[in-house]
Write a structure and sequence with these properties.
A: mainly alpha, MetI-like fold, about 85% helix, B: alpha/beta, Rossmann fold, 3-stranded antiparallel β-sheet, about 35% helix, globular
Chain lengths: ~260, ~250
């Protein structure tokens, strides 16, 4: 009974919060253009579901393109770093610089330089999403126990066979946990880039719909778009987590602790 | 088979691990390198394996050339298995790295797993095996290439006493069947006395060979109860204490 209650607790808390929110809005009479209640938000979504879902699809297209590119780039750079100390010394500081630079500050530049709107959004999202998968994979490639590495030396395995049979499989749990974090960040990056691009008049994605609704004081529609974004983020996180768990379970491994 | 001549090894930071170590390793020997922690036993084993190089002295192999990959088997203190691979795949690894196909290797792999008592566990992953069984997989992996020399670095140190005794007896039986040379690092006097034909005592800091004792025992099921075994343990203990005091 306690376990079941624990599992249901988040949903129950959410329902309770929504009921209290709706009750508070109705009892105080606060205008809908300031704080809409949950029912008004549902109404705003149902009044134009197509428009919001098309915008969501556009945001998700940017998110997944960025996630795939971030995974490929992160893996390639982690491999380069593990292969050469010179590459590690050259790459690591710049990867950190890229991670700590606020994307909102460089997004306008990227949009101007890249030109193509979709590609520029993807580049912005890649910059945000790239670091976790890169850093985790680099950690995983370096996590091989020295005795196992010695064993491969003893049996005359070359660099590529050691990579294929030892380092890459050892890095898989780290890569997957990094991918899960990057999935959420790719969505964040896509939305930030869409806000910047939307401010410049490029109409695409849910972020633009939020901007547009804000200009028109359609606060309920802003909330509806926000709910869709949160839902997408949750689905991406849970989906990538389940995918990672399934892959690792098939290989008799478990996820990296703390990931 | 191998002559180690006046070998020395000093690590970065100035720690001298070995000084003037000389030892002849004959074909079919079972040698125990016995000494306290930090006396350079593992360093000497790594030098023999070619995983490290001496600063002074030399290692001369019969025929003048280093053993080929697969001529040396190595068993570490931990089983060091690939956690994503089955017992069979772990044992196949050295042959795979030599370029053998599974079809050609399968019989050898299953045979050696059977020999170490793991028939029926070919498809188990390390996480599904006990510590003793994982060590058996590790020994099978070291034996599958039919090595000329088997190097073992305190392989049973992390196991419980009952498992350790069983594995010692099984290792001895495998050594008698296979007939390869074994160099076995341990800090257990009982283990060295039970397993080895030659017990090489090492003193510490820097590691040197203090004395060698040849075992008079013929190992059998009752060896641990044999007064000759108790006498050998006493002899080795006295000699080791003397070596450590003199160092």
């Amino acid at each position: 009974m306690n376990e079941r209650l624990l599992r249901l607790a988040p949903a129950l808390f959410g329902v309770l919060a929504l009921v209290l929110w709706e009750a508070a809005v109705r009892l105080t009479g606060v205008p809908v253009y300031l704080v809409p209640g949950p029912l008004a938000i549902v109404g705003a979504f149902l009044s134009d579901p197509g428009g919001l879902l098309v915008a969501l699809a556009s945001t998700l297209a940017v998110t997944f393109a960025a996630l795939i590119a971030a995974a490929a780039l992160g893996l390639a750079m982690a491999l380069a770093m593990s292969a050469s100390r010179l590459a590690r010394a050259a790459i690591m500081p710049w990867a950190v610089v890229l991670q700590v630079t606020p994307i909102v500050a460089i997004a306008p530049l990227i949009i101007i330089w890249v030109g193509n709107p979709f590609a520029s959004l993807v580049v912005c999202a890649v910059i945000v999403a790239f670091f976790p998968v890169f850093a985790n994979t680099a950690t995983g490639l370096a996590s091989v126990p020295p005795e196992l590495a010695d064993l491969f030396v003893l049996y005359g395995a070359g660099r590529w066979r050691t990579l294929a049979l030892l380092r890459l499989p050892a890095a898989l749990p780290y890569f997957l946990s990094g991918l899960r974090i990057s999935g959420g960040l790719a969505l964040v990056g896509a939305v930030v880039a869409e806000f910047v691009a939307g401010s410049g008049g490029f109409a695409s994605g849910l972020a633009y719909r939020i901007l547009e609704a804000g200009y028109r004081l359609q606060v309920a529609r802003m909330f509806a778009a926000l709910v869709l974004l949160s839902g997408a983020g949750i689905v991406i996180n849970i989906g990538l987590g389940a995918l990672g768990d399934a892959i690792l379970r098939r290989r008799g491994l478990s996820a990296v602790a703390g990931a | 088979m191998l002559r180690i001549e006046a070998v020395g090894r000093r690590f970065a930071g100035g720690v001298e691990a070995l000084r003037g170590v000389s030892l002849d390793v004959g074909a079919g020997d079972f040698i125990a390198l016995l000494g306290p922690s930090g006396c350079g036993k593992s360093t000497l084993l790594r030098l023999i394996a070619g995983l490290d190089a001496p600063d002074t002295g030399r290692l001369d192999w019969d025929g003048g050339k280093r053993p080929a990959p697969g001529d040396i088997g190595y068993v570490f203190q931990d089983a060091t298995l690939l956690p994503w691979a089955t017992a069979e795949e772990n044992v196949f690894l050295p042959l795979r790295l030599k370029g053998m196909a599974w079809a050609a290797a399968a019989e050898d792999v299953r045979g050696v797993l059977h020999r170490v008592g793991l028939a029926g566990f070919e498809g188990a992953r390390p996480g599904q095996l006990s510590g003793g069984m994982r060590m058996r997989v590790s020994i099978a992996r070291a034996l599958v290439t039919r090595p000329r020399i088997l190097l073992m670095d305190e392989p049973f140190a992390a196991l419980d006493e009952f498992t350790r005794h069983r594995l010692q007896a099984d290792l001895h039986a495998v050594w008698e069947q296979v007939g390869c040379t074994v160099v076995f690092v341990t800090h257990s006097i009982y283990e060295a006395a039970y397993l080895a034909r030659r017990i090489v005592l090492m003193s510490s800091r820097p590691g040197r060979i203090a004395r060698e004792i040849v075992s008079p025992l013929t190992v059998g099921p009752e060896t641990r109860l044999d007064p000759a075994y108790a006498a050998l343990v006493r002899t080795v203990t006295t000699a080791l204490e003397g070596a450590l005091e003199a160092a």
